[in-house]
Amino acid sequence: MKNLIKVERARYNLSQTDLAEKCGVTRQTIYAIENGKFTPSVILAFKISKALHINIEKLFLMEEEDFSI
After folding, report:
1. Domain 2-62 carries which CATH code?
2. What SS3 state is found at 53?
3. Alpha-carbon distance 14 to 37, whole Å?
4. 8 in Cβ contact with 54 (< 8 Å)
5. Rounded CA gap, 68 and 16, in Å?
6. Residue 43 · residue 51 · CB < 8 Å
7. What are residue 61's phi and psi, to 5 degrees?
8. pTM, whole model, 2 decimals?
């Protein structure tokens, strides 16, 4: 799964630390999600999308391999 967190953070001039504080996680968690090393829970994904004022479907982009069973 890809995401546009870094791009959307830039729109609001938010650091990883700023976003992490808004979502109740560590900066390392935001870093890991941005870099595709960690997939957030549904609740955290919604918190991030709300903090960045963007629909979750536009922030997190599913890739073909994400649909394989």
Report:
1. 1.10.260.40
2. coil
3. 21
4. yes
5. 31
6. no
7. -110, 115
8. 0.91
